[in-house]
Amino acid sequence: MRIVFAGTPEPALPSLRRLAASRHEVVGVVTRRDAPLGRKRVLTPSPVAALAVELGLPVLKTDRLDAAATETITSWGADLGVIVAYGGLVREPLLSAPRHGWINLHFSLLPAWRGAAPVQHSLIAGDRVSGVSVFQLVPELDAGDVFAQTRHPVDRGATAGRLLAELADLGADTVSDVVDAIADGTATAVAQTGEPTLAPKLTLADGLLDFALPADTVLDRFRGTTPEPGAHTTVAGQRLKVLSARRGPDAPALAPREVRLVGKEVLVGTADGTISLLSVQPAGRGAMPAPDWWRGLRVDSLEAGS
């Protein structure tokens, strides 16, 4: 079967690799345009673009699937479109151009967490089970019939970055199985059931940690916003990015938001215990162990959020 693949970031790579090595033919790859990265804002191809070049596949770089993009993609004569985190909408007439339409790999158990940031919202909500869904793409957001779902337990220490990498590998297997089933004529899709939850793109404000809340609630938000958009607080009026943290000891008892060096640990009080800051990044500085940052402050106690 002839496949067109659309994707952009790192989590799309396992699926592209799997399909390129399968019995099917990837006839073209669609990805976003080169983007400026780093302090020097150097134009850099997307991870999917780089892999497509490595695999010797035709690449179309576009931020919008407009009439020109539709003409190019249609000329490839694909039987099926596969989309994994492309970052743009597929509309008619492109949606119906492949004879089997398009399937989408989504990093949640639909209808839970429809939207751009399913993994992040799932962790913030405290979900203990996640997974992937492969569904038929339709005009409504993430609402198509589901061909397959694979569940995945969420490790208590997993950040969004780590969980997304795990789901990307798991999703490559699920996508491959669904593509094979479509080619063999054995694929079946069922309508989504249950009340949808939404997962819009996160903003910097979503990473703000409120240490007045219970410790697990704070850690869920930390994990869900790490590495992007970044978990943070303020200490002594300065923004502090929290890069690594874990549940701290129950003793000593600290007041909510109280920050103190206890032994070799920087602890922050919450509504029901402490959180240990392991690695932080003060404003305008690089990452450092939290105790080194604290010793540089030369104080006994401060309040997070102040």
From TrEMBL:
InterPro entries: Fmt, Formyl_trans_C, Formyl_transf_N, Formyl_transf_N_sf, Formyl_transferase-like_C_sf, Met-tRNA-FMT_C, Met-tRNA-FMT_N
Enzyme class: transferase
EC numbers, comma separated: 2.1.2.9
UniProt: (6S)-5,6,7,8-tetrahydrofolate binding residues: 108-111
Segments forming domain Formyl transferase C-terminal: 201-297
Xref: Gene3D superfamilies: 3.40.50.12230
Catalysed reaction, written as an equation: L-methionyl-tRNA(fMet) + (6R)-10-formyltetrahydrofolate = N-formyl-L-methionyl-tRNA(fMet) + (6S)-5,6,7,8-tetrahydrofolate + H(+)
Gene Ontology molecular function: any one: methionyl-tRNA formyltransferase activity
Segments forming domain Formyl transferase N-terminal: 1-178
This protein's record includes keyword Protein biosynthesis: yes
Family the UniProt entry places it in: Belongs to the Fmt family.
Protein name according to UniProt: Methionyl-tRNA formyltransferase
Name of encoding gene: fmt
